Structures are given as C-alpha cells and as structure tokens.
Amino acid sequence: MPERCFIGLGSNQADPAAQIEQACDAIGQLPGVSLRARSSLYSSAPLGPQDQPSYINAVVMLDTELEAEALLDQLQAIECQQGRTRKAERWGPRTLDLDILLFGNQVIDTPRLQVPHYHMHARPFVLYPLAELNAELVMPNGSPLRDLLQACPATGIDTIADSARTYC
Fold first, then answer.
1. Catalytic residue flag (residue 94)
2. How confident is the model at residue 76 (pLDDT cuts 50, 70, 90)?
C-alpha cells in the first residue's frame, strides 16, 4: 500500500519560485510516486544568517510506494540536479531544500532521516502550507495539526496569492 507523505520545499536562490515548480515536476516524475497537491507558495525570512534573501516555501502531498530512505535518496538527487551543494554551514542560502515532513504515520529516527521532521512544530512556513493540504491531519504522536498551529502563529510568512496546485 502506498504511504501518504508530505514534503517541505524551500529555496532562496536562482529564481526560488521556479525552483519550487521544477522540483514539483521532478517529484511527480519519480517512479513509485504520485504527486497529489501542492500548497500555496509562502515567503518567509531565512532561518539562521539574516544576510541572505527571503525563502519561498511550499509543501507537497504525495503517495509513494518507495521506502522512506529511498524517497530521501530521490529527493536529494533532485536537489543536486537543481544546483544544491551541501555545505558545512547550516541554514545558509540554497537553490533547493526538500525535506520529508511526514511519511504516513511512521516515526523514523535513523542517522540519515528523522520523521516527523524535527522542529516542524515551530516553523510556520511548514505548518501553514501543511494545513492548507490537510487541515484535519493528525501527527504520528496523536496530536492534531490544529494544536500545533495554535502554538505557532503565522508571523513572518506571507502567502503568494493563487499559487496552490492540484495534480491528478
């Protein structure tokens, strides 16, 4: 049975909105993956060093037959294809960042992957697009997404109007 997954997308380099669109197209072409929807695009200030451009963020919902780390491998390949280079600096500028936020109802904690994504509970640029795709979502620990939203105000993010997409 396919797993319902949510992937966070972010970019602040090389035409960020286009980077998000290209990543969605690439994700939708992965074998064993069916892209279902993409949230609106959101603009947010960068985490970490502030001497970099604002980010464009979104979340996609997909169904996959891949195992979690196989999906991670595919997402990292897309990042590389779109010019991402991994550096020691955390939260620096990047062409593309793809994060597995939720993988079905699984809790995963390996050296390569932590799901639910760590700190997503404190990131409005993740929670609000996620709620756009499924407002009734319940986290693997049983807490409703709406509780996380109440604890994480939407300050510092702006929706880019009419930018959500639905896929077949």
1. yes
2. very high
Is 51 annotated in the active site? no
Catalytic residue among 15, 36, 86, 97: 97
Q: Where are the alpha helices (DSSP H) in the chain?
A: 16-28, 68-81, 124-133, 145-151
Choosing from 94, 109, 147, 158, the catalytic residue is 94
pLDDT in tens, 118-164: 889 999 999 999 999 999 999 999 999 999 999 999 988 999 866 67
Cis bond upstream, residue 116 (ω within 30): yes
Question: Which of 84, 109, 146, 147 is an active site residue?
Answer: 84
Running DSSP on this structure, what letter comes out for residue 48? S
Asked if 147 is an active-site residue, the reply is no
Tell me the CA distances in angstroms from 61 to 13, 65, 87, 134, one per residue in order: 23, 14, 28, 9
Complete domains list, the chain, with CATH:
3-166 (3.30.70.560)
pLDDT digits (tens, 9 = 90+) for 34-71: 999 999 999 998 887 777 889 999 999 999 999 999 99
Name the active-site residue from 51, 63, 86, 99: 99
Told to judge if 146 belongs to the known catalytic residues of this protein, a careful annotator would answer no
pTM (whole model) above 0.90? yes
